[in-house]
UniProtKB/TrEMBL annotation:
Domain LisH stretches: 430-549
Intracellular or extracellular location(s): Cytoplasm, Cytoskeleton, Cilium basal body; Cytoplasm, Cytoskeleton, Microtubule organizing center, Centrosome, Centriole
UniProt-listed InterPro entries: ARM-like, ARM-type_fold, ARMC9, ARMC9_ARM_dom, ARMC9_CTLH-like_dom, ARMC9_LisH, LisH
This protein's record includes keyword Cytoplasm: yes
Gene Ontology biological-process annotations: cilium assembly
The protein's name in its UniProt record: LisH domain-containing protein ARMC9
Assigned keywords, A-Z: Cell projection, Cilium biogenesis/degradation, Cytoplasm, Cytoskeleton
Domain ARMC9 CTLH-like stretches: 60-183
Taxonomic source organism: Zosterops lateralis melanops
One Pfam family of this chain: CTLH_Armc9
GO cellular component: centriole; ciliary basal body; ciliary tip
SMART domains registered for this protein in UniProt: LisH
N-terminal signal peptide: none
Length: 675
């Protein structure tokens, strides 16, 4: 109760501020009257609106009333502004100088000594605390000596402070700053707190949803592992206790502490099935409803002609509809509706199309357009739809080279391009556009990339290196390519290590690249890193070394341009949580957003139709012993590929080694020819 009383005045001030904002004037009168009757503290500053405080602060400035001025300053200027905004910091510094020297100007050099000392003590305290941050700035450095100068009025460094023009200029700057800042603070603090709380709750629920989604895919992956192993026993291959332990530990690792999962004896009959039933008992399977249909014509019109804020809100809502949907019929229906209504104008020849939002002057619009394209590219049907636009790939490559590498726009453009590289036609186009050269230059300095960006750059490079045309590009810059890849071998991220191993394994198939690698001591470099790697990475590096020392053939690379038609596995149909991270767009009071915006303003006629699923093929997995030899994307690779260790008996190693020169074994187990 004591804590409540300590903040009671501030809480009452927040309530009154919101009531003023919402126009409850009669309620405000009753609140003030009751607070007075009960002796409750109601801050006087709260009785004055932000706009009314502007003339009061200016009057306090003119009167030299330091105490009143800085009290109003602290109450009405958000700490996030005066602690981080350079304009606010600079202005505050000069205001402290103004009030410290105010008496010297007013009393013609004969001020009250006690009051003058008090003002300079206040100034010194500021210099030692908040003002210390500016001590390294050349502009302000001389003023740190001001409190110690006997007569600053005659000192050459401080004469300007006592001129009327300096005071007038400072007042003008103050009025301009206050008018802009206080106008921006029209949203009451109580509402700001509520919106922040709601955003936090949304992000928390979204993370929980994605965790459940990953558990679901993990369960599917483990099930496939067990089915493959069961099929292997038909041919007489034994399932080892260690393999069963690793699969079960993976299955229950999200529900049990990892140490506990590894200590349970899963080989004892009934243990795994008991735990599986217990885990599944917590998962209530419910019928998932289809979402309402939308008016896509109106949607696309507003995406092209609406305000930047409306465009961003719509792009966000359309993405959320996809990313928060349930995998299966609900998500498939949403994607089918987007595609059949040509939501992104991929089939349009008009100059003003939805895709042109990638070139918007608004950074938020560009970012949210890139996020939506990345979400589309995360799904097989979405990639197929996007690939039908002949200019989109070039647009994304343009944005990749124009946007700041630290921006979320750049990150999502990169993510979309990486997922595009799962399709052969788009691989060929990216190789032809010289994207390998660009990627190698970016990877020279991996420390300037975020974890996501480094993973996706490395994975994109590996995917392009798997193609014969990509290998030819690498053969034209062997030394540069090998040095960049070798510098990434010691990276702590195992996924990056896997992509580097895959790229090395691919380009070392070329004799001239092998010779270059031998000259730079690649085998010694690899063996140096082998000592610090886990068993899986050690086996991959051993395959790379074996490739390095393979028999020389001519440099003629067999083209793979005539290989079979596009095919992608359903396994890579995953929307990673990164698509919705770090939202910069927060709805204002009474503003519609998300699904509510779509169903309130853009409700259409129900047009859902059943979706025909593409036939999938079953088979065996690529051996984890080998470097990656098929295109992958980190969003899938990190959630389903690395976490599922294969049994050594799942596929004979000799069988793989006899086939790897001519065949590629993809994760779904279907073989396909590659160059």
């Amino acid at each position: 109760m004591g804590d409540v009383l300590a903040y009671e005045a501030e809480l009452l001030g927040l309530v009154k501020e919101y009531l003023d904002f919402a126009g409850f004037q009669e309620t405000v009168k009753v609140l003030k009257k009751e607070c007075k009757t009960k002796g409750k503290p109601l801050p006087k500053a709260a009785d004055v609106s932000s706009e009314d405080s502007l003339p009061i602060q200016v009057i306090a400035f003119e009167d030299g009333d330091q105490k009143v001025f800085f009290q109003l300053w602290e109450e009405h200027i958000l700490s996030s502004v005066h602690d981080s905004d350079p304009v606010a910091q600079n202005l505050e510094f000069y205001l402290h100088i103004y009030f410290a020297t105010f008496l010297l100007k007013q009393e013609m050099g004969n001020p009250d000594k006690t009051e003058l000392e008090e003002r300079f003590s206040y100034f010194k305290a500021y210099l030692e605390t908040k003002g210390a941050a500016l001590s390294q700035t050349t502009e302000f450095l001389p003023f740190y000596a001001l409190p110690f100068v006997p007569n600053p009025m005659v000192h050459p460094s401080f004469k300007e402070l006592f001129q009327d023009s300096w005071t007038l200029d400072l007042r003008t700057r103050l009025e301009k700053f206050l008018s802009l800042t206080l106008k921006a603070r029209q949203t009451p603090r109580l509402l700001t707190i509520f919106l922040a709380k709601r955003e936090h709750r949304y992000v928390t629920n979204l993370k929980l949803f994605h965790k459940l989604q990953m558990d679901y895919y993990n369960l599917l992956g483990v099930t496939a592992e067990l089915v493959d192993s069961l099929a292997a026993t038909v041919t007489g291959k034994m399932i080892t206790p260690e393999y069963l332990q690793s699969v079960c530990a993976c299955l229950f690792s999200n529900h049990l502490k990892r140490s506990v999962a590894h200590n349970i004896d899963f080989t004892r009959p009934g243990t795994a099935s008991t735990l599986l039933r217990a885990s599944l008992a917590t998962m209530k399977v419910q019928d998932v409803p289809l979402l309402p249909s939308l008016d896509y014509e109106k949607l696309k019109k507003d995406l092209i002609t609406g305000s930047d804020r409306l465009k961003a809100l719509l792009l966000q809502a359309l993405r959320w509809r996809l990313t928060t949907s349930y995998p299966g019929e609900q998500r498939d229906t949403i994607m089918q509706a987007y595609i059949s209504n040509d939501l992104l104008d991929c089939h349009s020849n008009c100059q003003r199309s939805v895709l042109q939002l990638l070139y918007s002057k608004s950074e938020v619009v560009r970012q949210y357009m890139a996020r939506l394209i990345n979400a589309f590219a995360s799904l097989i049907e979405g990639r197929a739809y996007l690939s039908q636009n002949p200019t989109l790939l070039q647009m994304l490559e343009d944005r990749l080279k124009a946007e700041d590498k630290d921006s979320l726009t750049w990150e999502n453009v990169l993510g979309a391009l990486q997922k595009f590289s799962l399709r052969r036609t788009l691989q060929s186009a990216m190789i032809k556009d010289g994207l390998i050269f660009w990627l190698v230059d970016v990877l020279i300095d991996p420390d300037c990339l975020s974890e996501y960006n480094l993973e996706y750059c490395a994975a994109l490079l590996m995917n392009l290196c798997l193609r014969s045309a990509g290998k030819k590009i690498c053969a034209s810059i062997p030394n540069h390519m090998l040095r960049v890849l070798s510098s990434l071998l010691d990276h702590e991220n195992p996924k990056v290590q896997s992509y580097v191993n895959g790229a090395l394994y691919s380009i070392l198939a070329i004799p001239s690249v092998r010779e270059e690698a031998k000259e730079m001591g690649m085998e010694e470099i690899l063996r140096c890193f082998i000592k610090e790697r886990n068993e899986e990475m050690v086996r991959q590096m051993e395959f790379v070394i074996k490739q390095l020392n393979s028999e020389p053939f001519n440099d003629n690379i067999v083209s793979d341009d005539d290989d079979e038609e596009e095919y992608e596995e359903e396994d890579s149909n995953i929307l990673e949580p990164d698509l919705d991270k770090d939202e910069v767009l927060v709805p204002q009071l009474g503003e519609l957003s998300g699904e509510k915006l779509l169903t309130t303003e853009y409700l259409g006629i129900m047009t859902h139709t059943p979706k025909t699923k593409k036939k999938q093929f079953a088979g065996v997995h690529q051996s984890m012993d080998e470097p990656l030899q098929r295109p992958v994307t980190p969003g899938y690779h990190r959630t389903a590929y690395l976490i599922l260790p294969l049994s050594k008996s799942a596929l004979p190693l000799s069988f793989i080694m006899n086939n790897f020169k001519k065949k590629e074994w993809n994760i779904a187990g279907r073989e396909r020819s590659i160059g």
